[in-house]
Design brief:
With about 425 residues, the chain is α+β, with helices and mostly antiparallel strands. Helices cover about 65% and strands about 10% of the residues. The chain folds into two domains: about 200 residues, no CATH class; about 200 residues, Histidine kinase-like ATPase, C-terminal domain (Heat Shock Protein 90, 2-Layer Sandwich). The longest helix is centred in the middle third of the chain and has 47 residues. The radius of gyration is 39 Å and the shape is elongated. The relative contact order is 0.07.
């Protein structure tokens, strides 16, 4: 009993009733226009003195106009906002944004016609029934009402009939509340179907998720390459400097000074890159175009930071390499040097860039140590990042042992930067 009373008179039922009354208010301009159009068919009856037949004719004329209005882009966002606030429908079940495509517009039109149509009927009943019911309830206690034409018109001139009007009035109000609760529940149940995402909406959402995932992967590559290389280079330089400080060989002080300078340069450059990437993550921005970062012009600094065992050479004018290709090529060389620092055990590593007419070829080699490379917890992602960078530019990459050396090659089309 208590559950039934809550379903009819509870807060959710009241909010849905308000939602239906708002639908009735939205119907009024269309209904007034309908009375003007239908007046000649009913002997020129006015809108307030019209018969019940004319009022329903105007109501039927108004609903197709409502359906046409629902085709405008803002109809669905407004309907969704009101349904979420008043119909107690979970937000994820409803679509966001304007309706795009025939399916979404048709659903929105169906929802608006149902909302406005039911709301118009219920609003009329809400305006008419409560005053009449209150009059019936006050009739046994008011001699003025007993002498009015109301009692004769409805056959309530007998005292027993007047007292019978009290429970009838209560029953009418309860029935009105029950009908409003049922209509509100019907709208709430149909909201996910009519205002939920269409196939086009789901496709657009999937595309947005794919774009967000691509951005996250891109930022992850930036962090992996810049920070991973910096840590490897700093570890290598610091270890070499520490070992030389323990020896008495001449020139050690100068080498330590160069190592510390390389550490300073590497960390300063990496901190700038890290600040930029973390700034994008903190603001939630999606980087458009290219993420700023070093290009092939910074190869000399990259080689100095990698230590004395690294040699980077190139043939051709690297200034004519497109910025996108230049930046990705720098990251590929950086990752190759990082891998060599981790796994080659201080063996010399060479990197050569050959610029052709249509592509840039990168070749990096270091001797195999003769023992398996150490495996980090979770596995490395550097070679996967190299492959992704080359593939995004329309190029190819390969890595593996060849003739006693570890070789990393990448071919980057120059047109991939356009």
């Amino acid at each position: 009993m208590r559950r039934a009373a809550a379903a009819v008179f509870g807060r959710r039922a009241v909010l849905r009733w308000v939602h239906l009354i708002l639908g009735g208010a939205l119907l009024m301009p269309y209904w007034l226009l309908g009375t003007v159009v239908m007046a000649p068919l009913f002997d020129g009856q006015g809108m307030f003195a019209a018969s019940l037949g004319m009022q329903f004719a105007a109501y039927g004329f108004a609903l197709p106009l409502v359906a046409v209005t629902a085709l405008f882009p803002l109809a669905r966002p407004m309907s969704v906002a009101v349904a979420r606030a008043l119909c107690d429908v979970r937000g994820r079940e409803l679509a966001d944004g304007p309706a795009r495509g025939r399916e979404a517009r048709t659903r929105t039109a169906g929802w608006l016609v149902l909302h406005v149509g039911l709301g118009g009927l219920l609003s009329g009943a809400t305006l008419a029934l409560p005053p009449f019911a209150l009059t019936l309830m006050a009739l046994p206690f008011s001699e003025r009402l007993q002498r009015s034409e109301l009692t004769a018109y409805y056959g309530l001139d007998q005292p027993w009939a007047q007292w019978l009007g009290v429970p009838v009035a209560l029953l009418m109000l309860t029935a009105l509340a029950a009908v409003a609760a049922g209509a509100g529940a019907l709208l709430a149940g149909l909201a996910p179907l009519l205002l939920g995402p269409s196939r086009a909406d789901r496709l657009a959402a999937a595309e947005r998720r794919a774009e967000e995932l691509a951005v996250r992967n891109r930022l992850a590559r930036e962090l992996h390459d810049s920070v991973g290389h910096a840590l490897s280079a700093v570890t290598l330089q610091a270890g070499a400097a520490r070992r030389l400080l323990d020896s008495d060989a001449p020139g050690d002080r100068e080498f330590v000074r160069e190592a510390l300078a390389a550490i300073e340069e590497t960390t300063r450059r990496t901190v700038g890159e890290l600040d930029h990437v973390l700034g994008l993550l903190r603001r939630g921005d999606e980087p458009s175009g290219e993420l700023p970062g070093p290009g092939l012009e910074a190869l000399d600094a990259l080689a100095r930071g990698a230590g004395a065992t690294a040699a980077v050479t190139w043939t051709g004018d690297l200034e004519r390499v497109p910025p996108t290709v230049s930046r990705e090529a720098y990251r590929i060389v950086q990752e190759g040097l990082t891998n060599a620092a981790r796994y080659a055990g201080g063996a010399p590593v060479t990197a050569h860039l050959a610029l052709g007419d249509e592509e840039l070829e990168i070749t990096m080699e270091n001797p195999l140590s003769g023992r398996p490379a150490p495996v980090r917890p979770g596995g490395g992602r550097g070679l996967r990042g190299v492959a992704e960078r080359a593939r995004l530019l329309g190029g190819t990459s390969a890595a593996g042992p060849v003739d006693g050396v570890w070789r990393l090659t990448a071919r980057l089309p120059l047109g991939g930067g356009r």
